[in-house]
Amino acid sequence: MSEILNDILDFNKKFVGDHEYEKYETTKFPNKKMVILTCMDTRLLELLPKALNLGNGDAKLIKNAGAIVSHPFGSIMRSILIAIYQLQAKEVMVIAHHDCGMSGLKPEPVIASMKERGITDEKLNTLTYSGIDIQQWLHGFDSVTDSVKSSVEMIKNHPLMPEGVLVHGLVIDPKTGKLDLVVDGTLN
């Protein structure tokens, strides 16, 4: 067992034994009726909820690299639609951040790192044969605000998105928590 896993399991045993979970009890329905797509950046783990005045149970939180909806029928969009249709979310917020690792990300260094760790050209070519453009799939974005606008548009214009759901776009400063409004969903 890894040291990290062992530490987590030891802590968890005490957490459950001491009934620490009781202060986090809530339902599966978001109190503030919203779903947030944000980046997986470690700086946002506690900062983002605090900067938005969110407590446990207030929002559905979806995270990925860059807060990007890259495919209209991928898992991110499916999660947003489930939050709306089954979990009572009425607003969607796409919240990316400044100084994101996806900003300016080029696929070549990622592919080189994959090869260094044992991924063969044959495996990479299999993706191409399967119709996946790995260069596009691993490409980041050039402008965080343009990326947010693109994700907001994909969500808003999705054929399964019901009328009346507000879709907002914001960018957060990962140092201070300051929010910059990019798209006000009430105006569209």
Walk across the major sheet and give the strand order: 2-1-3-4-5
Distance between the termini: 52 Å
Total beta strands: 5
Helical content (DSSP H or I, runs of 4+): 25-40%
Please, how many domains? 2
What report would you give on this structure?
By secondary structure, this protein is α/β, with parallel strands linked by helices. The protein folds into 2 domains: 3-99 and 143-187, Carbonic anhydrase (Beta-carbonic Anhydrase, Chain A, 3-Layer(aba) Sandwich); 106-139, no CATH class. Helix content is 38%, strand content 16%. It is built from 7 helices and 5 strands. It has helices at 3-17, 44-51, 75-87, 107-116, 121-129, 134-137, 144-156; strands at residues 34-39, 59-64, 91-97, 166-172, 179-183. Strands 2-1-3-4-5 form a 5-stranded mixed β-sheet, sandwiched between helices. Helix 2 links the parallel strand 1 and strand 2 (59-64). The longest helix is centred in the first third of the chain and has 15 residues, at 3-17. The protein is globular. The mean pLDDT is 96.
